[in-house]
Amino acid sequence: MSALLEVKNLSVEIPTRRHLLVPVDDVSFDIAPGEILGVVGESGAGKSLTGAAVIGLLEPPGRIGGGEIRLEGKRIDNLKYRELRRIRGAAIGMIFQDPLTSLNPLYTIGRQLSETLRTHQPLSETAAKARAIELLDEVGIPAASERIGQYPHQFSGGMRQRVVIALALANNPKLIIADEPTTALDVSVQAQIINLLKRLAADNGAAIMLISHDMGVIAETCDRVAVMYAGRIVEIGAVRNVVQAPNHPYTQGLMASIPRLGKDDARLAHIKGSMPRPTDIPQGCAFHPRCPKRFEPCDQKRPELMKGDSSQAACWLLQREADQ
Amino acid sequence: MSDAPLLEVKNLSKIFDLTEAAWLAALTGRSRLLLPAVDGVSFSIPKGKTFGLVGESGSGKSTVARMTVGLMQPSNGSITFDGKPVSAPGGGRGIGRGRLQMIFQDPFASLNPRWRVVDIIGEALLRKGMRDSLARAKRAGELLDQVGLVAVDGEKFPHEFSGGQRQRISIARALASEPEFLVCDEPTSALDVSVQAQILNLMKDLQDELGLTYLFISHNLAVIAHVSDVVGVMYLGRLVEVAEKKQLFKAPQHPYTRMLLDAIPRLDMTTRERSHVVGEVANPMSRPPGCHYHPRCPFANKRCKSEDPKLKGAANFAAACHGVEEGRLPAWAAAAE
Ligand SMILES: Nc1ncnc2c1ncn2[C@@H]1O[C@H](COP(=O)(O)OP(=O)(O)OP(=O)(O)O)[C@@H](O)[C@H]1O
Ligand SMILES: Nc1ncnc2c1ncn2[C@@H]1O[C@H](COP(=O)(O)OP(=O)(O)OP(=O)(O)O)[C@@H](O)[C@H]1O
Ligand code: SF4
Ligand SMILES: [Mg+2]
Ligand SMILES: [Mg+2]
To answer: Cα(B325)–Cα(A24) distance, rounded to whole angstroms?
Structure first.
């Protein structure tokens, strides 16, 4: 099956007074219809910017520095603003990381949903309202018909998050970019949203990019997962393989840091040091200053993604294994 | 008196009035829309300990949090900190500013977008009486370093940071006033697991060194299990279970707590359908009579549908459930990890 979304050599640039930052650098991946691709990685690694770039919603001065983005084979990274806006509303659904900024504090929840629906579908006001209630119901807002007349600040954090999800799904999008959609939700509502996303993929053939820090959610939801570090994909592969047998030392460190029930350590393992800022990405492998397994080539040459036994990883260790 | 709790919450309630205009409701004869978000919650936290709060989204956790630091007036009940009321009904604040701090659930909304990070943290330092701006900048740099950022980040504005980086800034700001009591509302859910581990370790160190006391809210039960001494579980505004951490995770009593533990996503269950979630999400606007959980509870009987279960048991081992009280719930078998 050919991919629904293809991203090739994407880079994102942000010009600042002193530097030209490249917080997303040469990122390639694709997502097939019905597939859920997870994206994990260090906070600040470029996950949200990648998602925003794909749908043309980078905030200026941020811009696409290079690469191609195709939706159903058609380039969307060089479209005119109006054309892109039309596609975005009808074919792409976006769930942003911060629910408050995607909701207008001055409009009721119901009005925001109805307007989104009516911009892209020929619906009467009553039909739109009925559909809005249905959507809120689907994302698990109790007594949707009673709460539709309320404003965002009258909802709890998790309820606002569900409203944002309802907005994103309103027009049955083919591509869904979900940035931390379940972090503000308790595990039972989380399960409901995950099942909803899975259903959209399985039944509607939607392609979904799911950005999350919750490895449990990723493990249960995704088919494949990409791990990002300092603006690049450092590992990508089937979720089972990446979670259970990670190849990249960064992914290994990440997996070891997860607090687990039943393991009663006073301290959690964590990766020493912090990720470099986009202003000073080290030469060679960007992870080498923190890597417990680094060897000669690591601070010299930048590794590209290489095929390992269970996944692809950008790490010289794979090369060494292959050579032996 | 070292064993008096540092924070004591008694019979705390909050009712939101959702009626658009009270006079309109009176005029049209429509009933007012009242939402009891928090309903008779009591707990206490000894100095140097962590009380974890979990529960359904919308169950009132953030509302409890805001009331405990005095950001919101309770409709009923009392909160005392170090023996003094946090917020008297008249509005007077008995507690010195800064002794209680809160890290908010939403790092986007809680940082002033027009201020540089160094000024955001500096303001808290200034309020503590640090007048020298150079000393403030230096201290801000140290705090940024403590939360895994770097000192030069101080020169930037909040929008130049990712979600997780912003959350670390708000943690640094809270630490700047050297609080004795810190309310953390989902402090690490925007962070990757490695940075989360760094922050949780830092919080533990601060507790060991300075005797900090925490009220810690999270949906991540593994995080709650890691940080808490005692855990409270909320459902529709009420505390339905309070137990010492080990006890709660080994042998949860309340059926809602059991359902929560069953719903935790697990790493080994790759692409498995989650089957454990039962029933509709609760509606705070029309709360079922009796035990609020009864429509979803597999053990509900006639009594559950009409009589409010009260939180019964010891301070660190209590549940509000008729089934538990009557001893008719089966032993809990944890799903294998
Ligand atoms: N407007 C901006 N100006 C300067 N730097 C920026 C700007 N927006 C983002 N950045 C930087 O780009 C990097 C990537 O940001 P992004 O929001 O994509 O991270 P992320 O992977 O989504 O992180 P998180 O998990 O914390 O949400 C970060 O280091 C951030 O500081
Ligand atoms: N300012 C407000 N006005 C009206 N209703 C409110 C207000 N703040 C909260 N509520 C309502 O009170 C209830 C409890 O909200 P709260 O934010 O305390 O929940 P929570 O347990 O923190 O949920 P979450 O896990 O989703 O953050 C919700 O039904 C919410 O809609
Ligand atoms: S009181 Fe009854 S309905 Fe409520 S949780 Fe216990 S057994 Fe279930
Ligand atoms: Mg992000
Ligand atoms: Mg909350």
So the answer is: 57
